[in-house]
Amino acid sequence: MAGNEYVDRANRYIEDVLSGRVPACRWVKAACERQKADLGRKDFEWHFDEQRAWRVCRFISLLRHVKGPLAGERIELQPWQCFILTTIFGWVDSKGHRRYHEAFVEVPRGSGKSTLMSGVALYMLCADGEKGADVYSFATTREQAKIVFDDAQAMARNNAPLKERYGLSVLAHSIVVPGTNSRFMAKSADAGTLDGLNTHCAI
What we know:
By secondary structure, the protein is α/β, with parallel strands linked by helices.
């Protein structure tokens, strides 16, 4: 692990929120307070694994923007993004099971949430250690569901190291990892095909 820069960035964000240097609503403040308190707890059933927290951030930071003025440049995770990722992925029990299974992220338009979620989806598809990982982006309509999928598809299409490392195949309507029998697809409620899904990650 090349240092703990993402965990450090997340912890600075916590301090900035709690000190008032970064404006935040009461829900964000409560999440920061909880994370800070939990990091100091002893005899807790969960432990914070910095390697796991670092790994997801590092994976996403090796992807590239596909839209806007930053298109083609590597993703540089902002402090609030590091806080979300390290909190969700860092906490595990003694068997390595995650503490958090759901997360609700609400940020203003243009804040890069689709880019972030596309990176999370690719991580869960390729690098989470799950065999047969079924990853989906869900929405009411297929057009909405394809926003995250299309970004992830564009991120993966021209990323030779990613494809070589994981044997990734980028197809028209799915991204697959044949070696682990994993796939990422967009699904919508209007398609009527949501029954029987064995979902590893839902965006």
